[in-house]
Amino acid sequence: MRKRREIEVFFQRVVRSAQLNSLGAGISLLWSMLLLGIFFCTISINSNFSKEHAIFVLVSFSLLSLCSFLWALRHWFRNQSQKMYAQKVEHQIPELRGSLLCALEIPSQADSGRIHERIVERAHHSIQSLSVSSLAPKKTLVRSLFFLSSSFLALLILQFLLPLSSLDALASLVEKPEVTESIVEKQSIFQEVKIADITLHYEFPEYTKQDPITVQNSDGTIHAPINSKVRIQARVKEEFRSVFLQVHDSPPIPAELNNRFFITTELVIDKPGTWRLLFEKEGVKASSEEFQIEVDGDNPPVVTLETTPPETLANNQSLNIRWSAQDDYGLKKIILEYEVNGKQKTKSIRDFRRTKTKYNGRMAYTPKRLGLKSGDRVELRIVAYDGQPASEEEAKNDEFAHIGKRGESATISFQVVGPKLEGERLVLANQDFLAAMIPALADFLIEPVPPSSTDAGMITWASSVQKRFIPLQEATKKHWGNEIATDYTAELVLQVLDTSNRIMRFVRTTYHEKKLGRVKKQDRETFIELHEQQIVDLEKAIYLIDRMLRMTHFQLLLTASEEAMEHTQKIDELLSKEDITRQTKKNRMTRLERALKEMDKAVKGISDGSMKQFVVLYRQQIDNLWTEMSQRDAELDDDQYDVLLQELTESVFELHEGIQEQLRRQKNDEEKKKEEFKKLIEELKKQKNDQLDLSQELEDTRKKFDTTAQERVQMWKQLQHLADDAQAGSEQLKRELGGGEGYRSGSIRQYEKQSRALRDLQNAIKARDYEQSFRELSMAMRMNRSVQSQNYTEKNRERM
Question: Which residue, 452, 469, 467, is CA-closest to 510?
Answer without folding.
Answer: 452
